[in-house]
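Input sequence (86 aa), recorded before submission:
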Amino acid sequence: MYRLVSTIGILLVFGLLLMIGAQYIQQLRIGQELADYEAKVLEQELRQEDLQVEIERLQDPNYIEVQARDRLGLVKPDEIIFQLQD
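Predicted structure, C-alpha cell format:
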C-alpha cells in the first residue's frame, strides 16, 4: 500500500513538474513573440515618420521643382540646357 501511494505521489509530482515546464516554455515563446511585435511596431513608426517627412517635402514647390529637373529632366520655358560630354 505504501509503495502504491509513493508511486502515485511521485507520478503526481512529475506530472506537475511537466505542466510547470510546459507553462514556462509557453511563457518564453509568448515573450519572444511580444518582443518581435514590439520591434515591428517600432519599425513601422519609424517608417511612418519618414513618410510624413516625405509628404511635407512634396508640399514644397522648390522640392518638386528640383525633383522634376533631376528625375525627369524638365526645364523651364525659354531655358537653355548645356550638356557636356565626358
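Checked by second reader. The mean pLDDT is 92.
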